[in-house]
């Protein structure tokens, strides 16, 4: 969090410095650690507190557990150091879930009569958000992520919401180009960075005002917590986001915050293994006749690749493809042994699902979203290829 983030923020523990040219693995393992204190743990344990001792005037940083918590502070520093290395002007706030983070930006920044541009192919809860925004008299325009189509509906908008790569279609847009166009007409720009993680893409460096994500996915990576965050560089806008968190109370529990911080230490290890396996799996799937619509932004011939290669440093752990029918897809999922049939993505254990079962995404019935975990690459590919064989008609 930035020094201006909260009353008395100067009292908040500061992170241990690392060299300015430290690599991403070094940053991940040390991100958000406080100065070492003799006989104290390197990463202090979760602070369970609804309230803090507060004699006299109620000054921060820690007053009441819905406003601030020392475990959040360290996690917020850690995420900020990854989303915006070396930037003192960026503030990060953690939330109970990715949706809490997304809603905090949209509902704190938009007013009745404003127009907002959302992706038409983004996370499947966005249509629910759209309905709520419209109920408040906010005009919602949508366009697909691919081809930078959101540019066509930007005029007069107050906020542009980007999801790149999009979930589950894995299309990519040129964030810098869209951000410049949006800023030219005074619109704020938010990027959902869930799929890429801050080690894959840094939206704030690409010109966005907010990097927003579900920390439920690869950031925490073990499929055992829900979390969200907003990192932003406009202090006035972030004050609105902070106020929203306070009045809605969409806060993470200290245990979740601590687990996420502990997990960030292995982020680079997990991301490098999972993403390399995702590319290897995509290459193996490319050779299969029953697989169509294969998408992975790291594949050199993927339609997303040219832009992804310019703005991403890693391409994510999600591969999507289509099998000929719903029945074939269900048989395939049932035949997998190392891949759990489950929603969500980014965890160390591979998961896959027939996305059409939810009814919210415009995808074929046989569309599969597969999230590659940290298993040995060869084992995972062998499991997927065996399941394809066994599920054949
Ligand atoms: C791209 C994206 N953004 C946001 C969310 C919402 O996150 P959460 O489930 O933590 O609320 C998801 C969840 O799948 C997602 O895939």
What does the model show?
By secondary structure, the chain is of the alpha/beta class. The protein is 33% helix and 14% strand. The protein has eleven helices and twelve strands. The chain has helices spanning 24-30, 70-83, 98-109, 126-135, 175-184, 235-248, 254-264, 267-286, 305-311, 326-335, 377-390, and strands at residues 91-95, 115-119, 139-143, 159-163, 188-192, 210-214, 228-232, 292-295, 318-322, 340-341, 351-354, 367-371. The protein has a seven-stranded mixed sheet, sandwiched between helices. A five-stranded mixed sheet has the order 8-9-12-11-10, covered by helices on one side. Helix 3 (98-109) crosses helix 6 (235-248) and helix 8 runs parallel beside helix 11 (377-390). It is globular. The chain binds pyridoxal-5'-phosphate.
| DSSP E strands, number | 12
- Give the structural class: alpha/beta
Name the overall outline.
globular
Round the mean pLDDT to the nearest integer and report it.
Answer: 95
- Summarize the helix and strand pattern as letters: HHEHEHEEHEEEHHHEHEHEEEH
Could you name the key traits of this structure?
seven-stranded mixed sheet, alpha/beta, binds pyridoxal-5'-phosphate, five-stranded mixed sheet, globular, 393 residues, 12 strands, disordered N terminus
What does the secondary structure layout of this molecule look like, with pairings?
Layout: H1 24-30, H2 70-83, E1 91-95, H3 98-109, E2 115-119, H4 126-135, E3 139-143, E4 159-163, H5 175-184, E5 188-192, E6 210-214, E7 228-232, H6 235-248, H7 254-264, H8 267-286, E8 292-295, H9 305-311, E9 318-322, H10 326-335, E10 340-341, E11 351-354, E12 367-371, H11 377-390
Parallel strand pairs: 2-3, 2-4, 4-5, 5-6, 10-11
Antiparallel strand pairs: 1-7, 6-7, 8-9, 9-12, 11-12
